[in-house]
């Protein structure tokens, strides 16, 4: 084995002094694979290993720019963004469950409203005070709308219960239309105002609102002329 190695070393030594034309002739005769095995001692493409060393320990290490790509390359998973409002995985929206789960928000809003009222009282700047009052009015409108919706759901529930009992008694089922639901809610709202003594105030505010609307209509019609 050692003799073969010495022989190959001698051949390589001789080959190193041969001109390129003779090397090409030799390669064509014995074949590329055998030629590389004799000349480089390996099968396949000749490779030279460079040992990068630091001349000084304080200098950064010198590395080859030709780094091979690792075989077991793991591609990072792409992050998929989803909007829960429009994603089927979130299921269908149930308002009852939502209101029950986030019922604490009504208490938070009430506290924020009280805090805002205190800030309005302390604010002296007219512009700032006007903006805060507008915000307060919006909060009140949202609160009234939520109460009105809650009342409507309660009335519909009571209506369905009565209707269910009447159907069980043999009556033909009747379903409320939107206009009928609204009329039912208005009647209940007026009943509450009468019982609380706020009906007159409500009628006065409503008449003022209608008058202001009519005034705006007249102004626009005058402009058109």
From TrEMBL:
It comes from the Eukaryota. Keywords: Nucleus, Ribonucleoprotein, Ribosome biogenesis, rRNA processing. GO terms for biological process: maturation of SSU-rRNA from tricistronic rRNA transcript (SSU-rRNA, 5.8S rRNA, LSU-rRNA). Associates with 90S and pre-40S pre-ribosomal particles. Component of the 90S pre-ribosome involved in the maturation of rRNAs. Required for early cleavages of the pre-RNAs in the 40S ribosomal subunit maturation pathway. Belongs to the RRP36 family. This is rRNA biogenesis protein RRP36. It comes from Candidula unifasciata.
């Amino acid at each position: 084995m050692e003799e073969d190695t010495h022989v190959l070393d001698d051949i390589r030594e001789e080959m190193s002094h041969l001109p390129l034309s003779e090397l090409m002739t030799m390669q064509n005769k014995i074949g590329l694979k055998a030629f590389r095995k004799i000349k480089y001692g390996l099968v396949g493409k000749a490779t030279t290993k460079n040992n990068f060393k630091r001349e000084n320990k304080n200098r950064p290490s010198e590395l080859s720019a030709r780094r091979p790509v690792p075989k077991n390359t793991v591609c990072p998973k792409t992050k998929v963004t989803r909007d829960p409002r429009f994603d089927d995985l979130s299921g269908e929206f149930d308002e009852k469950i939502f209101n029950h789960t986030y019922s604490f928000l009504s208490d938070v809003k009430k506290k924020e409203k009280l805090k805002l009222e205190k800030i309005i009282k302390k604010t002296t700047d007219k512009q700032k005070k006007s903006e805060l009052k507008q915000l307060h009015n919006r909060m009140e409108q949202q609160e009234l709308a939520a109460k009105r919706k809650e009342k409507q759901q309660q009335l519909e529930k009571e209506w369905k219960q009565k209707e269910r009992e009447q159907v069980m008694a043999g009556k033909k089922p009747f379903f409320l239309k939107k206009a009928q639901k609204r009329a039912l809610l208005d009647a209940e709202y007026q009943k509450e105002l009468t019982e609380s003594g706020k009906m007159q105030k409500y009628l006065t505010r409503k008449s003022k609102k209608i008058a202001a609307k009519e005034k705006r209509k007249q102004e626009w019609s005058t402009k058109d002329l």
